[in-house]
Inverse folding.
């Protein structure tokens, strides 16, 4: 059984946010707009977090892309009263949208802030265009990904490691009567596929030969808030600086 | 105008949505039971149509990365990088990812329109393409006949592929010398610095992959440098991609940017003094004999003179005081740069957009020559471009010849701006004064001077006087709102276009932009519009654009490329359609001399090209060279004028109560020209301080205390020109005495998200309070020459 996880090399990362935007496109994440954003209600399955330290001119800033950690011992699952969120056989912390009752206990429990709540129905502007068949279509609905359903108001959502892409890859492998290959997995999630600096790798931690297993052996490897015992399956590789 | 919002019942809508196979139900009329029945992500639902991937080229910035667009039943669903494109190799930046919001922008212009009310009032009437083209052709013919062809001004910005050539042919055959490019408000100084020293009037390509040390002067390598994705890839490679160690990256910038925070070392520098730092590094390198004597001997001219000046004038202590960088730090930088070869000194707008910008950039580039980093692995390389068919020259009739002999309106190439090719920000004065002649028509092609030029109010005023303004923009930007006629182009995902990226990998790269979806609206490729206008006007103008349409012109241009590599033209075209890009790598490090295109064939520390141009301009205007030099407000004398040296940057306002330096910058999610109407980018805009959707300024804690500003205050920034409003953020990464402001906000037009940013009635565009100060040699504007003062917002008007 696979154990899916990700490695993010902070030394490679240039904090460009391509992962953030790619994730929003791929997963039909609605736009919150200025007012709701200012209340902290913008939805990011993957977010770039900054942390500044020091005083001018001796200042440092860490910029950390944060997807869901897909913890092996997730705090969110323990508090969900309706089993809307669960860890699947392959270690992905999944969420059943239509089971969620919107109590947001999982959001309080998650130490990483990886979960977001849909305060509103996702809405798109009313403007339409005419197709060749003479049909008026709403413009901004057109790019929605049919592989991912749009969540409704009142449910919590989060990063799923692009589980729909994983399913497609499995189907393809099955059709070709073979196992999944590491090279088709490394860049499988939308964030990893677009990453200009190849800072992200996805793969199977159960396979000692996989890229992620190899990378995670690095002495630079660490996990976020490991001391909480959540056992995250996202491993970071620390930045290095040549300050000499 | 076509009525676009129509009412129909929910049942019909659902039926429509389901029959086209999309399982997404529009949110506004989505019954809850149905949404829930659709279940969780990744259940057994499937898109009903086959997925088709189409290759094309991005246009969210000038880099020209290859893209691959996922389409289902004619809808574009996702954009990914084209794995075969040598610049981005399958990767994309956030802007590239957000491209769908350009195509599906609900505020796009939906067809040709005519302004019916007063200029800028926003009352538009829809017209047909035939009528629009007829209208333009008639007006242009009349102007040509009655006022002379020089009274047409063609303002252009993002010309890609053949567009510059097509507009040029049109301008030539019509007979106007006034092709005004917006390059002077961008990076003209970079190109000019390379031209004067190396003879290459372009950006440079760098062999990033093999370098050991990068020192960047005001080039935001990880935010705003070109080509965006390639530079990110290369930085990643320099960090962890190679076995022979990690390269060191040093960023010299007044602001602690994302680039600075990701660099090994940040060197804060007093704005505009970058040239002094470079010259001082040279001083140390020369004094300690760390320079490449063989390279200097074989490939450079004028070193002895320059060496003397550098040794005499740029001592460590003086420069430490001028730049605010500790002396020991400067010495260390010089040592590292010379000893960690191959190294690269690269400069961007931060160093170039000052009144002394050209000299700054030349001085910085001299560092590359000093340690022999040109034409070698890990250094500066020379970009070769694909060979396109050379079309025969345009036939000029008498009217055109007369028009072309008239002086340009912007004064480029005269004693005003002797080295300039085009100075768009000097246009308003010429339009208002009607000097040297009156302007009757303005074309706007992908340029938005009413937003992007310093002191844009001047353009607003000047444009009121122009009888005919025609815009080709697909978007109702600030300037297009002032047009009389709008002939909207397709967006980049709907049109044909060639794309030769700016210098990048060294070897030739040629991208193709092809429609990935059918045009959504009644828009038309601007090249086709130009060809049609030519046809309607007839004569030599028609002859200058002898193609049926843009696609035919592209095929004609590509014949040259195909034959240059002995390929069959049709096969070449088929390959290009399929792959989306053609390239001819790898780069050959065979001949170092191809880097030097100056008349002497050397790198010139004393620029003969500058000398020649200055004396030509002086003699054509009957003044002495010395007079021209002092007229240009250059402090240097004698041969110093032609050598990279340091002059204090000029600024405006400091003599009054304005004592803070205004420093504007770009973030990665700033999609250049008209990127603001893309909510995905807006919601991820200012990552360092988690600022989104609205204007903010960064101020050093000490400066904030001095001016009584607290975190989060609404503040007004005032310059001698006026005032803008923003939110104050106290940031230890801001230099004392410098106010940082992102370049993005303050659009008056352009769409709901652009205009909604920080919604209030105040102006928020930093350009509004930015004075127009030039680098008088090159005509490039100095964006960082304005001094401001800051106070808490007192009155709401």
């Amino acid at each position: 059984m696979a154990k899916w996880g990700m490695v993010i090399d902070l030394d490679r990362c240039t904090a460009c946010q391509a992962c953030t935007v790619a994730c929003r496109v791929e997963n039909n994440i609605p736009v919150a707009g200025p007012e709701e954003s200012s209340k902290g209600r913008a939805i990011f399955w993957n977010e770039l977090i900054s942390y500044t330290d020091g005083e001018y001119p001796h200042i440092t800033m860490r910029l950390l892309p944060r997807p869901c950690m897909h913890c092996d011992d997730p705090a969110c699952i323990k508090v969900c009263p309706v089993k809307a969120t669960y860890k699947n056989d392959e270690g992905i912390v999944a969420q059943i949208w239509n089971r969620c009752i919107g109590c947001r206990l999982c959001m309080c429990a998650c130490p990483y802030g990886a979960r977001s709540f849909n305060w509103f129905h996702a809405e798109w502007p009313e403007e339409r265009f005419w197709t060749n068949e003479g049909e008026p279509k709403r413009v901004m609905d057109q790019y929605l990904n049919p592989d991912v359903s749009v969540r409704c108001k009142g449910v919590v959502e989060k990063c799923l490691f692009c589980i729909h892409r994983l399913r497609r890859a499995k189907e393809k492998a099955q059709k070709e009567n073979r196992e999944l290959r590491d090279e088709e997995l490394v860049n499988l999630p939308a964030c990893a596929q677009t990453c200009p600096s190849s800072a992200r790798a996805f793969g199977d931690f159960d396979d000692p030969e996989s890229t992620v297993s190899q990378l995670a052996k690095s002495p630079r490897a660490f996990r976020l808030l490991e001391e909480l015992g959540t056992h995250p399956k996202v491993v970071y590789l620390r930045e290095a600086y040549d300050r000499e | 105008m076509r009525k676009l919002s129509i009412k129909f019942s929910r049942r019909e809508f659902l039926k429509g949505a389901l029959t086209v196979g999309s399982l997404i139900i529009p949110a506004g009329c989505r019954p809850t039971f149905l949404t829930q029945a659709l279940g969780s992500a990744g259940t057994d639902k499937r898109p009903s149509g086959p997925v088709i991937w189409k290759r094309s080229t991005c246009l969210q910035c000038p880099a020209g990365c290859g893209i691959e667009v996922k389409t289902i039943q004619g809808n574009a669903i996702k954009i990914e990088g084209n794995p075969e494109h040598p610049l981005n190799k399958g990767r994309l930046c956030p802007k590239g990812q957000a491209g769908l919001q350009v195509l599906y922008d609900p505020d796009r212009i939906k067809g040709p329109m005519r302004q019916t009310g007063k200029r800028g009032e926003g009352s538009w009437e829809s017209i047909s393409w035939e009528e629009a083209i007829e209208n333009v052709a008639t007006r242009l013919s009349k102007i040509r006949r009655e006022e002379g062809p020089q009274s047409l001004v063609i303002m252009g910005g993002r010309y890609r592929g053949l567009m510059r050539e097509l507009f040029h042919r049109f301008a030539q055959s019509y007979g106007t010398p006034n092709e005004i490019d917006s390059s002077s408000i961008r990076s003209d100084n970079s190109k000019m610095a390379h031209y004067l020293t190396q003879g290459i009037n372009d950006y440079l390509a760098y062999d990033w992959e093999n370098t050991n040390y990068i020192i960047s002067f005001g080039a935001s390598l990880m935010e705003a440098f070109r080509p965006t994705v390639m530079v990110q890839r290369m930085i990643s490679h320099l960090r962890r991609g190679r076995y022979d160690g990690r390269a060191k990256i040093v960023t010299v910038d007044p602001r602690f940017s994302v680039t600075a925070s990701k660099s090994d070392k940040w060197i804060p520098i007093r704005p505009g003094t970058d040239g002094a730092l470079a010259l001082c590094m040279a001083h140390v390198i020369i004094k300690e004999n760390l320079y490449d004597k063989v390279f200097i001997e074989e490939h450079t001219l004028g070193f002895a003179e320059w060496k003397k000046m550098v040794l005499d004038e740029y001592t460590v202590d003086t420069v430490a005081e001028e730049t605010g960088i500790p002396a020991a730090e400067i010495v260390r930088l010089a040592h590292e740069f010379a000893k960690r070869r191959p190294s690269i000194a690269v400069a961007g707008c931060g160093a170039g957009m000052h009144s002394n910008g050209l000299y700054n950039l030349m001085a910085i580039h001299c560092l590359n020559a000093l340690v022999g980093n040109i034409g070698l692995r890990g250094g500066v390389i020379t970009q070769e471009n694909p060979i396109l068919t050379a079309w025969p020259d345009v036939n000029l009739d008498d009217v055109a010849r007369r028009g072309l002999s008239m002086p340009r309106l912007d004064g480029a190439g005269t004693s005003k701006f002797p080295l300039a090719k085009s100075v768009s920000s000097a246009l308003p004065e010429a339009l208002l004064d009607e000097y040297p002649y009156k302007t009757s028509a303005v074309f706007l092609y992908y340029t938005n001077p009413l937003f992007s030029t310093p002191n844009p109010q001047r353009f607003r005023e000047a444009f009121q006087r122009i009888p005919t303004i025609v815009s080709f923009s697909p978007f109702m930007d600030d300037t297009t709102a002032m047009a009389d006629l709008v002939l909207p182009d397709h967006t980049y995902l709907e049109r044909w276009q060639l794309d030769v990226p700016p210098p990048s990998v060294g070897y030739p790269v040629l991208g193709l932009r092809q429609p990935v979806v059918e045009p959504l609206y009644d828009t038309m490729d601007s090249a086709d519009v130009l060809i049609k206008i030519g046809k309607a006007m007839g004569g030599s103008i028609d002859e200058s654009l002898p193609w049926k349409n843009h696609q035919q012109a592209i095929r004609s241009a590509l014949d040259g490329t195909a034959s240059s590599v002995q390929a069959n033209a049709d096969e070449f075209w088929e390959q290009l359609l399929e792959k989306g890009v053609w390239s001819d790598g790898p780069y050959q490090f065979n001949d170092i001399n191809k880097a030097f295109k100056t008349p002497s064939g050397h790198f010139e520390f004393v620029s003969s090209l500058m000398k020649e141009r200055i004396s030509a301009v002086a003699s054509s205007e009957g003044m002495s060279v010395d007079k021209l030099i002092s007229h240009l407000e250059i402090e240097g004398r004698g041969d110093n004028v032609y050598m990279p040296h340091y002059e204090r940057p000029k600024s405006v306002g400091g003599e009054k109560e304005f004592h803070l330096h205004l420093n504007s910058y770009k973030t990665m999610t700033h999609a250049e020209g008209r990127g603001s109407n893309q909510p995905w980018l807006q919601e991820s805009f200012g990552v360092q301080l988690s600022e989104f959707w609205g204007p903010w300024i960064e101020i050093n804690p000490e400066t904030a205390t001095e001016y009584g500003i607290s975190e989060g205050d609404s503040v007004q920034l005032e310059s001698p020109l006026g005032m803008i409003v923003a939110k104050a953020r106290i940031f230890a990464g801001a230099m004392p005495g410098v106010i940082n402001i992102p370049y993005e906000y303050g659009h008056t037009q352009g769409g709901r998200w652009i205009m909604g940013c920080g919604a209030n009635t105040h102006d928020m565009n930093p350009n509004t309070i930015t004075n127009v100060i030039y680098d008088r040699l090159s005509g490039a504007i100095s964006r960082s020459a304005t001094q401001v003062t800051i106070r808490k917002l007192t009155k709401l008007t």
The longest strand of chain A covers residues 47-55. Residues 163-175 of chain A form the longest helix (13 residues). Chain A touches chain B through 87 residues (CB under 8 Å). Residues 80 and 106 of chain A are 6 Å apart (CA to CA).
